[in-house]
């Protein structure tokens, strides 16, 4: 027996409304993870008490503020569409499509343009740190600036009366914007992953597979390359480019992931587990073992030890630290 209270809207229109509504809840769940990671990151940065940590604190505080604004604006727009303005001519669907230019939605869209600019900026900085070659970041910087300009144009176009993110006029800017942003992110991810894999090979071939996991493990590559950000943006742009309504589900989530990924990198930096210039330069040494046979072996620090080989590990922002096999955990 059919439900007498069920809506009579066409399935496509109903699915569009459902995805817009559900996306806000998905974004709110991701925001919960964002809160936890922000306070963890802030805690370790404060505990370190290093002179330059205020820059990282300011950066994550800005990301957290922008992520908060976005989730609040999304929730408020939902409230307007389904509660406060429920009698809007044409119902919630018409409100969603025709009221994209209200201040609440403009603020949310503006945040969506600024957050990837900041996130990609940090990734470019990390590429510079890991590769330690300035020319590696020339093309990424140009693409980064072009992407931000396209993001501004997309936000302005979507804010026009009777326009939206799904209007043809906006698609002329949004598809190139999201495509360029995604391409930049994937390119940066490839640069980071390839470099980390190379350094993993260098360390494991020199010290053995059991050493250097802090800097060369799979989790390290996933976090330091911002892989979750890249994968989420890839799925979104594919769905958005083919006009698949499911892309709506990823919009608020993408903003939170863009905030979380840089914080995870900074969290590793604050705990001394991320790659630094010192780490890279030290890891490029071809051999860390000296001496032979059963006689004493000379460590990189210049001391002598009997019956074991001294090993070297690396800490971000500090000098290399020697540990012996017996004491390595």
TrEMBL record:
<feature type="transmembrane region" description="Helical">
    <location>
        <begin position="106"/>
        <end position="125"/>
    </location>
</feature>
<keyword id="KW-0472">Membrane</keyword>
<keyword id="KW-1133">Transmembrane helix</keyword>
<feature type="transmembrane region" description="Helical">
    <location>
        <begin position="177"/>
        <end position="198"/>
    </location>
</feature>
<feature type="transmembrane region" description="Helical">
    <location>
        <begin position="249"/>
        <end position="267"/>
    </location>
</feature>
<feature type="transmembrane region" description="Helical">
    <location>
        <begin position="24"/>
        <end position="45"/>
    </location>
</feature>
<keyword id="KW-0812">Transmembrane</keyword>
<feature type="transmembrane region" description="Helical">
    <location>
        <begin position="137"/>
        <end position="157"/>
    </location>
</feature>
<feature type="transmembrane region" description="Helical">
    <location>
        <begin position="218"/>
        <end position="243"/>
    </location>
</feature>
<feature type="transmembrane region" description="Helical">
    <location>
        <begin position="57"/>
        <end position="77"/>
    </location>
</feature>
<protein>
    <submittedName>
        <fullName>Uncharacterized protein</fullName>
    </submittedName>
</protein>
